[in-house]
Amino acid sequence: MDVRVVDHPLALARLSTMRDARTDNAAFRAALRDLTLMLIYEATRDAPVATAPLHTPVARTTGYRLASPPLLVPVLRAGLGMVDAAQALMPEAQMGFVGLARDEQTHQPVPYMESLPESLAGRPVFVLDPMLATGGSMEHTIRMLTERGATDVTAICVLAAPEGIAHLERSGLPVRVVTGSVDERLNDSAYIVPGLGDAGDRQFGAV
Ligand code: URA
């Protein structure tokens, strides 16, 4: 499985802001937005382009656009903070939504919402979820997508745990991961260490 770690100095700086326990909700959301821009930028580096002739004020030249903009699928609620940046870079991208809660005892994903196009055959999909922890939620989400025919899925994550990456590798699902860091491990509560805490609470406050 292809795992790309975006370790650009600006990405490291935003990630450090997000990790810092003193960062408030607003500053955390701003850093998440900036880091997501960088993750999407890297995730689309090798995307196929379509060309068409265009005229500048000076001359004729070639224009470029993404040949097939990905479907953006934020995983609610923590993925919501990544939507604005992804849409800013790809305004033409369509969106689907997946809602997954986490059972705090079993750490298993509990689905509560699925709003996706009927067919995803031939369509690239970007799943937006800041934390790839156990990999259970991501596997669940990708299975929802592959059941609809998706074969080209990219998980865009701020942080990944080695356990989550190994889980996805074992699943054999058609996914690659673009992340800001592969951290050390999970703790007994399935939080990423050193991590950044609960990505939903850090954005929106504890509810
Ligand atoms: N989800 C989070 O928000 N944080 C973690 O560390 C793990 C899962």
From TrEMBL:
<dbReference type="GO" id="GO:0006223">
    <property type="term" value="P:uracil salvage"/>
</dbReference>
<feature type="binding site">
    <location>
        <position position="77"/>
    </location>
    <ligand>
        <name>5-phospho-alpha-D-ribose 1-diphosphate</name>
    </ligand>
</feature>
<protein>
    <recommendedName>
        <fullName>Uracil phosphoribosyltransferase</fullName>
        <ecNumber>2.4.2.9</ecNumber>
    </recommendedName>
</protein>
<dbReference type="Pfam" id="PF14681">
    <property type="entry name" value="UPRTase"/>
</dbReference>
<dbReference type="InterPro" id="IPR029057">
    <property type="entry name" value="PRTase-like"/>
</dbReference>
<keyword id="KW-0328">Glycosyltransferase</keyword>
<dbReference type="InterPro" id="IPR005765">
    <property type="entry name" value="UPRT"/>
</dbReference>
<dbReference type="InterPro" id="IPR034332">
    <property type="entry name" value="Upp_B"/>
</dbReference>
<dbReference type="InterPro" id="IPR050054">
    <property type="entry name" value="UPRTase/APRTase"/>
</dbReference>
<keyword id="KW-0460">Magnesium</keyword>
<comment type="function">
    <text>Catalyzes the conversion of uracil and 5-phospho-alpha-D-ribose 1-diphosphate (PRPP) to UMP and diphosphate.</text>
</comment>
<dbReference type="GO" id="GO:0005525">
    <property type="term" value="F:GTP binding"/>
</dbReference>
<dbReference type="GO" id="GO:0044206">
    <property type="term" value="P:UMP salvage"/>
</dbReference>
<dbReference type="InterPro" id="IPR000836">
    <property type="entry name" value="PRTase_dom"/>
</dbReference>
<comment type="similarity">
    <text>Belongs to the UPRTase family.</text>
</comment>
<feature type="binding site">
    <location>
        <begin position="129"/>
        <end position="137"/>
    </location>
    <ligand>
        <name>5-phospho-alpha-D-ribose 1-diphosphate</name>
    </ligand>
</feature>
<keyword id="KW-0021">Allosteric enzyme</keyword>
<feature type="binding site">
    <location>
        <begin position="197"/>
        <end position="199"/>
    </location>
    <ligand>
        <name>uracil</name>
    </ligand>
</feature>
<keyword id="KW-0808">Transferase</keyword>
<feature type="binding site">
    <location>
        <position position="102"/>
    </location>
    <ligand>
        <name>5-phospho-alpha-D-ribose 1-diphosphate</name>
    </ligand>
</feature>
<feature type="binding site">
    <location>
        <position position="198"/>
    </location>
    <ligand>
        <name>5-phospho-alpha-D-ribose 1-diphosphate</name>
    </ligand>
</feature>
<keyword id="KW-0342">GTP-binding</keyword>
<dbReference type="GO" id="GO:0000287">
    <property type="term" value="F:magnesium ion binding"/>
</dbReference>
<comment type="pathway">
    <text>Pyrimidine metabolism; UMP biosynthesis via salvage pathway; UMP from uracil: step 1/1.</text>
</comment>
<feature type="domain" description="Phosphoribosyltransferase">
    <location>
        <begin position="5"/>
        <end position="205"/>
    </location>
</feature>
<keyword id="KW-0547">Nucleotide-binding</keyword>
<dbReference type="GO" id="GO:0005737">
    <property type="term" value="C:cytoplasm"/>
</dbReference>
<feature type="binding site">
    <location>
        <position position="192"/>
    </location>
    <ligand>
        <name>uracil</name>
    </ligand>
</feature>
<dbReference type="GO" id="GO:0004845">
    <property type="term" value="F:uracil phosphoribosyltransferase activity"/>
</dbReference>
